[in-house]
Amino acid sequence: MLCGSLYALFAGFLGAAASLSAKLSLGPAYLQEMCDSALRGWSEGASVCGWMHVPLRFLCGGLLLCCNAVMWTMFSKALRHASSSAGATVTTTASNFICSGLLGRLVFRETHTSLWWAGISLTLCGLMVLHAAAPEQQTPQDRKDI
Questions:
Q1: Residue 79, domain member (yes or no)
Q2: What residues have CB less than 8 Å from 128, skipping those under 6 apart?
Q3: Is this prediction's pTM over 0.85?
Q4: Helix, coil or strand: residue 34
Q5: Residue 7 pLDDT more than 90?
Q6: By percentage, how much of the chain surpasses pLDDT 70?
Q7: Which residues cross the membrane (predicted)?
Q8: How many angstroms separate the CA atoms of 31 and 62, rounded?
Q9: Buried b (16+ CB within 10 A) or exposed e, 113-138
Q10: Non-local CB neighbours of 49 within 8 Å, separated by 6+ positions
């Protein structure tokens, strides 16, 4: 059970990392602006940032593919080790939302409204309800053989 939850948490983080990579690789000029701010004050900073964002975009695109591949692997393992597929799915989704919010705040300085935080809170409450509920045990009498 704990192993499945850890796989699901990690899958959610990797999904958020893939979203971040997609936004960096396909976004308007995030990488060039980051390069400009990092190399501000250097005499050759502007000329380097004029072309450096192109290979960085390809690197972020590759990171997007890698994160998605590993995320689906971790999610599959979470489904295999979890007591219910709903618990693994909700855990992955909650982890993805929270990590996306934190990464958006750290990298892009995004702010979130109270409605966003209310939605995350409801998702976490649902996650706790799913994990607190004991799985039903089926007895041989309850099963219907076809």
A1: yes
A2: none
A3: no
A4: helix
A5: yes
A6: 84
A7: 55-75, 87-108, 114-134
A8: 15
A9: eeeeeeeeeebeeebeebeeeeeeee
A10: 32, 35, 36, 39
Q: Given a cut of 80, is residue 15 above it in pLDDT?
A: yes
pLDDT of residue 12: 95
29: CB partners within 8 A, 6+ apart: 53
Q: How far is CA 112 from the centre of its chain?
A: 17
Q: Which residue has the tokens 């966003």?
A: 116
Print the domain residue range for 69.
2-32+46-132
The verdict on residue 53 lying in a domain is yes
Residue 9 is assigned to a structural domain of this protein: yes
The amino acid that residue 85 corresponds to is: S
Domain count, the chain: 1
CA distance 51 to 56: 9
